[in-house]
Amino acid sequence: MNVQWPTVEVVARCLDETLALGRRIGQHALSGQCLALEGIMGTGKTQLVRGISYGAQVADPGLVNSPSFVLLNVYPASPGNPHSKTVYHLDAYRVKNSDEFMAAGLPELLEQEGIVCIEWARRIADLLPEDYVLVQGTSLDESSRCWRLTAHGPISGALLSAITQTGL
């Protein structure tokens, strides 16, 4: 039986709306949740991760920046905040093959208590877990973006249901 998982499409007319979508994702994502981010350079993938970090209540969301040159940035959970989740922010743009991501410990990160966000995830598609959310960003104009979120599994489906039930 082929299960059809939900897809949600959101138009963000400005950076604040992209951040708000990210906040909602960060609030509702469970530890171990994987978000596979796609879109051309300048689409706003890192800004979406910044919003996710705000929603996950990391210790310092202001530290969010593109991990293109370092492969992985970790934004730790806030100590003493039981609602805070660590965000692991990876970027596959510069990797030559999946082995480089294996060396960075992707399988172990997916087992940690936190949210895993991978920019340019298509480059390491063979390493993605069975259950993940594909987040595709498209620039509509200078400030507007279309974000298409597609669940690939029941946990990701529950995340999309939660963010749509609380309003977009």
Structure description:
With 168 residues, this protein is α/β, with parallel strands linked by helices. It has one domain (7-165): Rossmann fold, CATH 3.40.50.300. It contains 5 helices and 7 strands, in the order βαβαββααβββα. The protein has helices spanning 15-28, 45-55, 98-103, 106-109, 154-165; strands at residues 7-12, 34-38, 72-75, 86-91, 114-119, 132-139, 145-152. A 7-stranded mixed sheet has the order 1-7-6-2-5-4-3. Helix 1 (15-28) crosses helix 2 (45-55). The model has no long low-confidence stretch (mean pLDDT 90).
Q: Care to give the gist of this entry?
A:
The protein is of the alpha/beta class and 168 residues long. It has helices at residues 15-28, 45-55, 98-103, 106-109, 154-165; strands at 7-12, 34-38, 72-75, 86-91, 114-119, 132-139, 145-152. The protein has a single domain (7-165), classed as P-loop containing nucleotide triphosphate hydrolases (Rossmann fold).
